[in-house]
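Why do we bother with a discrete structure alphabet at all? Because it lets us treat a fold like text: something you can write down, compare, and reason about line by line. To make this less abstract, here is a complete entry for ATP-binding cassette permease mdl1. Read it the way you would read a sentence in a foreign language you are learning: slowly, and without expecting to understand everything at once.
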Amino acid sequence: MSTVYGRRIKQLSRTIQDNLGDMTKVTEEKLNGLKTIQSFAQQTKVVHEYNQEIKKIFNSSMLEGKLSGIYFSGNGFLGNVTMIGLLVIGTNFIGRGDISIGDLSSFMMYAVYTGSSVFGLGNFYTELMKGIGAAERIFELIELKPKITTSLGEKVKDLTEGDIKFSNIRFNYPSRSDTPVFNNLNLGIKRGEHVCIVGPSGSGKSTISQLLLRFYDPISGGVTVNNHDIKDLNLNFYRSLIGYVQQEPLLFSGTIRENITFGVKDASDEEIAYAAKLSNAYDFIMEFPDGFDTYIGPSSTGSAQLSGGQKQRISLARTLIKHPKILVLDEATSALDSHLEEVVMRNLSQLSREKTGEITILLIAHRLSTIKNSERIIVLNNHGEVVEDGYFSVLYSDPDIGFVFFAAIWGVVVYGPVTSWVQLSHAPAARARALAPSGARLVPVAGGIRITARG
Ligand SMILES: Nc1ncnc2c1ncn2[C@@H]1O[C@H](COP(=O)(O)OP(=O)(O)OP(=O)(O)O)[C@@H](O)[C@H]1O
């Protein structure tokens, strides 16, 4: 009986911990999305969802309370009934002259002590089971071994003195094992190249950067840098050589200076200013009365006191100050207007020229203004296959390839409320179809194919 009760209490304690975890998750998510919730006027729905989570905790705690109540009151009742029984039997014995009053009194004293100790043990058992239930989850988490370890492996000195290669990559995300992103991706990026990857949304552009940073391992095939398989490298060391900027920059609460120097120790004012100028952030920072010491709120709650484009530029400066050997920008300037973006892209091209062979730049982009400053363009299609790969000037001027190239660019550029069409002359229909985004209409016309899409 006690074992069954103990098992149930342990189970409930675990459920309460799980429910608490769910509630924390919901709270964090909803607080972070406060503005979105308000903009959709969905506060009532969200409060209801939150209440549901609270109710789950309430119900399991209530059940635990009831079980404990039944167990303890049952124990207490049994103890008292036993004492009364003993008194009745003892009084009978005294009446018959079998024992004295002193004998009964001392027996009762021993019985009370023993009974309360056993009762105390039951209490201890209950608390122990509750503790085990709650701790089980924690031990499970502690025992989890990451598939990718960051501190083991080689620290290869000449790592960035060679090319980057993606060889025969087959990959799907762990949560979508039936949806492959790449079936056989082969891609080489030469040391010091300035490459741009374009392609329709969902074609796997960002996944290439995730694989390069080894956030995931491919199912088969491998990524090598200067012929070193990145699986053999010390990840912390390897990642310290890479500068990675995402579309959604995460700034930390603190000053602009603290944010820019996040990844470096002892950066001088000149270095900070240089990085800010490269990312075209210097001018707007200097317009603030406190300059680099301007405080910005936490961006995790969406309240950083900066615009999206300003956040992106600070995030870029934070990466550039590290002097990365490989710079990966995943739509990192998408929030800038085309003029500001053009300046940033020109600065990066100049940096690439000044540091010939010392910095490899990999851009992921949608806009022509970002793309045209790159030397080499790689175009992916919807199936994660490389369908065009060449130098911008060649792709741009070749009537055959240029045409398909434009189709690809068009496919990824036309997103917004624009109704657009591109007329392709000399483009083989199969290639145009491979590159056109889903939902587009391909209409054969004299001299080529016309692609139309409604925004
Ligand atoms: N964390 C993830 N878990 C599961 N699937 C994912 C994950 N991230 C991306 N995917 C899927 O992988 C595919 C490729 O995504 P990826 O982000 O690389 O595309 P993309 O070309 O960068 O798209 P976009 O231009 O819209 O940013 C998509 O089908 C996407 O749904």
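What the structure line is telling us, in plain words: The radius of gyration is 34 Å. The pocket of adenosine-5'-triphosphate is lined by residues 173, 175-176, 181, 199, 201-207 (CB under 6 Å).
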